[in-house]
Design a protein that fits this description.
The protein is of the alpha/beta class. It is about 35% helix and about 30% strand. A three-stranded mixed β-sheet has the order 1-2-4. The protein has a three-stranded mixed β-sheet with strand order 3-6-5, with helices on both faces. The model is unreliable at about 1-15 and about 285-295 (pLDDT under 50).
């Protein structure tokens, strides 16, 4: 089957594909190539064809990973016409006919129930944040082991319990609560270049399950997904007061929770809602302009190279906020301590760890700082 831009094809119903217990691992695009594939146009027509045949054909044609949630019936017969639309939009159309939606992780399109998929990317981010939080006691070496990408490939009739066990084995994780995963047999799939958090989440979310870290990142405990799944981030509004921004964001982004703290707005929401807030702060970037915004890299994993002469600390902080770094501080407390963020500094660092980088910025002002994920909290020394 050929499904390419400008070409309309007709696929008629046929025999079900054979069960493949040990299929060869297909080539699948990842990262930027995956994102480009989702933006590329598709035209096609399917008449009374099973959902799984449509999706497998597209996956093979475009070299992308498509994972169908266990709660979506793959034998549903569909008739679909797509006319030169972005692939991601075409997949949304195909999914909607089965009362499903899509969610994209770094290199996989997931098709499943809207209520469950609305939490998936946020659950992945929360597990990542927990791993990199200082309170987790996960060592730097162990973190790098857990984020090492690997491709998970399995054939038809795979047991999800067995699959979780295999993923855990790949990352040397002890598993508590494996019995909470019901017995099931799955269709084969390929999850390209996933880390431990993403791989486990893609399997467990299909049972409305997630996990907790145990033993300083050496184990996991399988638990139910909470009713409310949200991440808290701090933003500094531009060209409007924090109160005005908080109210405007709530009105424009359904389900968002906001609170004002000094010059900043504390926002609680899903990954998708935070992406919408970021788009409102940066009007040049259209919400949804990319199929999936990249997950922010924790500051503990970043290196900084920067040379500047006589720049205001406040201006530099604003530029860093544009890069996804958030600052939490009480301006009145800083003023009372005689600290002026407009003080100019000079900085010259190359491939500096986050601690060294922020010491170079804030030590001249006698400011202490703590780092948690992508937020830097400031206090007078």
């Amino acid at each position: 089957m050929s499904v390419t831009a400008g070409l309309l094809v007709l696929l008629l119903a046929g025999a079900d594909p054979d069960v493949a217990l040990h299929p060869p691992q297909p080539r699948r695009l990842v990262d930027a190539s995956f994102q480009r594939a989702l933006r590329a146009p598709i035209s096609g027509s399917w008449n009374n064809v099973e959902l799984r045949r449509i999706l497998r054909g597209i996956a093979d044609e475009r070299n992308i990973s498509i994972l169908v949630d266990r709660r979506i019936d793959p034998t549903t017969v569909r008739s679909v016409d797509l006319n030169n639309v972005p692939l991601v939009q075409g997949l949304e159309t195909i999914a909607s006919g089965s009362r499903a939606t899509i969610c994209t992780t770094d290199s996989t399109v997931v098709i499943g129930p809207p209520a469950s998929l609305s939490k998936l990317r946020t659950l992945i981010q929360i597990r990542d944040d927990e791993m990199f939080a200082s309170a987790s006691h996960v060592s730097e070496t162990r973190r790098f082991e857990l984020v090492k990408p690997t491709t998970i490939h399995y054939g038809d009739l795979e047991s999800p319990r067995g699959l979780v066990g295999r993923i855990a084995g790949d990352y040397a994780l002890a598993v508590d609560g494996l019995e909470k995963i019901p017995h099931d047999l799955w269709a084969g799939a390929t999850l390209p270049e996933v880390d431990a958090v993403t791989a486990l989440s893609l399997v467990l979310n299909q049972f409305d399950l997630t996990f907790e870290w145990t033993n300083a990142g050496r184990g996991i405990r399988i638990v139910p997904v909470p009713d409310v799944v949200a991440i808290e981030r701090v933003y500094t509004p531009r060209n409007q007061s924090p109160a005005e921004a908080a109210e405007a964001w709530k009105n424009q982004i359904e389900g968002l929770t906001t609170a004002v703290k000094g010059r900043q707005v504390i926002v609680s929401g899903t990954v998708e809602q935070h992406a919408a807030v970021a788009a409102l702060l940066n009007p040049g970037r259209k919400v949804g302009s990319t199929p999936t915004p990249p997950r922010p890299v924790p500051l503990s994993r970043q290196r900084f190279t920067l040379t500047l002469q006589r720049i205001s600390v406040e201006v530099l902080m604003t530029k860093l906020e544009d890069k996804g770094i958030h600052f939490d501080f009480d301006r009145e407390a800083l003023t009372a301590a005689g600290i002026d963020l407009k003080t100019p500094i000079s900085i010259d660092v190359k491939q500096a760890p986050a601690d060294d980088f922020f010491h170079a910025i804030f030590d001249p002002l006698k400011l202490s700082f703590t780092i948690d994920d992508s937020t830097v909290s400031l206090k007078p020394k």
